[in-house]
Amino acid sequence: MQIAMIQDSILPLSGLDAAYLDRGIFFGDGVYEVLRSYNGRIFALDEHLDRFAASLAAVEIHGVDIDQVRRRVLEAFEAAGGGQAKIYFHVTRGSAPRDHLCDENLNPNFFLTATELRTDPKVKDAGIAVSIHPDWRWKRCDIKSLNLLANVLARRDAAKKGCAEAILVDESQLITEGAGSAFFAIFGRSLRTCPLTANVLPSITRKFVIEAAAGVGLDVVEKPLSPAEAAEADELFIGVTTQDIVPVTRFDGKTVSSGRCGQYTNRLCERFLAFTRG
Questions:
Q1: Is the pTM of this model over 0.90?
Q2: Does residue 30 sit in helix, strand or coil?
Q3: Which residues are known catalytic residues?
Q4: So what's the pLDDT on residue 278?
Q5: Less Cβ around it within 10 Å: N or C end of the chain?
Q6: Can you name the residues that pair with 95 across neighbouring β-strands?
């Protein structure tokens, strides 16, 4: 007999809704994207879809029409009423009884949510506190996969310390990125961030921050930095899709510079918003 149990209910496995057999649940076998809109316009949709397609190819999930994904995103955005929205979507390899291997012809599953996005404008000035945490993630963080348990644990640790983000530190004692963000430091007129390698996500926000840097007179240095170096930076900030640029004013218990958003970070915020207006 093949059965399933959901809470206290027992039912035949054959009668189970396919959603319970999703390989995303069993194995994190899927990839995802998060987009946002500014004043009724989705930002960087092409860039996000290109990265999504690259993630699908990297984990060998086939049969997903990116143009169809685009149509679904736009349809959902319109149905949600536009405005300021966060759009999350993922594709998993499909649904099947739990086994590491599966039918290569399995139909991928698509899931999307569109929700109102509310941001606190005071954060742009006051900034956030962050804390460091060991980078326990897998070795292909350039793939935006559903395997996020290490990120969850890092964020939980940060929250217990009263921090809004965890900054991940690898085995070489160098910062890779945030648990859910790209990480940047400013020294004088240099913007420093970790180079894109297999252990760093090719952040879309990071791409636009680097473009903005030239417009505000910053030289970009793609080189890892240690927590000790970060603590001595003139300015720190993170980049994340749902909030774009967020100043970091407290790093692992230490106040960063003046404890307010720095001059270059503020100028980068303005430049980034110009991008969102097209």
A1: yes
A2: strand
A3: 144
A4: 77
A5: N
A6: 22
